[in-house]
Amino acid sequence: NQFNHSKQIPTQIKKKFLQCISKNCINSIKKVILFLQTEYIHKCRQTLGLSSLKGGSSYYRSIIESEIIPGTTPDMISKYGYSEMKRINQEINKLRIRKKFKGSLQEFKLFMNQSHKMKTKDEIMTHLQKLQKDCIKKIHSKYFHGLIQTNQHYQIKPVPKELGNNFAYYIGPDIHNKRKGIFYIDVSKPDVINKDELAVLSIHEGIPGHHYQINYHNTKKDLPLYMKCQIYDGYSEGWALYCESFDDIYTEDETYWRYMYDLHRSLRLIIDICIHYYKWDYQRCFHLMKTHLCYDTKEIKDEIYRYICLPGQALTYKMGESILFELRSLFLQQNKSIKDFHQKILDVGPCPLIVLMDYGLK
Q: What secondary structure letter does DSSP report for 7?
């Protein structure tokens, strides 16, 4: 019953389709799950990450150099993660003082997380549409060359029911831009969504984040097809996180959420390194995230599982962002405009961070 069709299909064909899915897909999936639960899990190792495997630490260092830039070490990333965690918590504490909140920093985070909850699906969708317009008017026009036409906007849709475990994500347009990019958000439980976190999400997933970057490259006629189809997380996730720093649309409460999302990405640097290089166990990782974030047990567990399964990927957000900030600082020292800097970064196209460094320094 979870398979929905966009067109009317004859009952007999639909019945055969569902029978085929059940016989050839569902039954096979059930067998795999049973195998994992009854046999596979009992023979798994109890340790986490690459650090507990022979040669794992060396392999992880090679992942870091591939994902970031040659010469980057686990120690460097870990120290940067801790310094960013400290800096961002200090910024949140300054905000706590400005708002004259009398409780502790953690109590302030809990209070802010429970404030301004949404009420209906329509309220969420309407606010996201407004944010897209605000980003174009107040951010794009200030920091980027050119204009954004209506046909270059992204669509906003609810997360499909069968993918309800995903809170928010972006699916880019097809290579010819015949299908628009789509920002999906789970609106099945509106009262768990904080209105103030939607601004930073809109910037990251939409304009000038993922949607703007992907749409820009898809429309570049001189960019080779293989580059349009390639994904470099250091470039793309670094770019989207970098864009979150454009604070022209944030209210004070929305700025809090920008800090919290940034804090989350900083913790990723520490947790990923500690799982795959310093041999931390699950409880130690869980405790660090629980201490600084206001996530429930399931959210933290899902995050830690992600880092276990994708060594190095979680590093690309903050490390890509840091390289963009470094390049921007050098560029602006030459008395050039920030619009020109963004044009330069976008014109190089999706690429490894080492290529971006070489190109950006020229």
A: S
Residue type, 220: K
Tokens of 116: 């301004």
Amino acid at 29: I
- What whole-number distance in Å separates Cα of residue 113 and Cα of residue 196? 9
pLDDT in tens, 97-139: 999 999 999 999 999 999 999 999 999 999 999 999 999 999 9
Cα-Cα-Cα-Cα dihedral sign, residues 98, 99, 100, 104 = negative
Q: Are 279 and 51 a contacting pair, CB within 8 Å? A: yes
Give the pairing of strands 168-171 and 155-158: unpaired
Q: Give 95's contacts (C-beta < 8 A, 6+ positions apart).
A: 252, 255, 256, 259
Reduce the DSSP state of residue 292 to 3 states and report it.
helix
Give the type of residue at 301. K
Distance CA 118, CA 121 (A): 8
CB distance 169 to 184 below 8 Å: yes
What's the token pair of residue 159? 């997360």
Residue 6's pLDDT is: 58
What distance in Å separates the CA atoms of residue 19 and residue 13, rounded to the nearest whole number? 10
Give the tokens for residue 74.
Answer: 């686990």
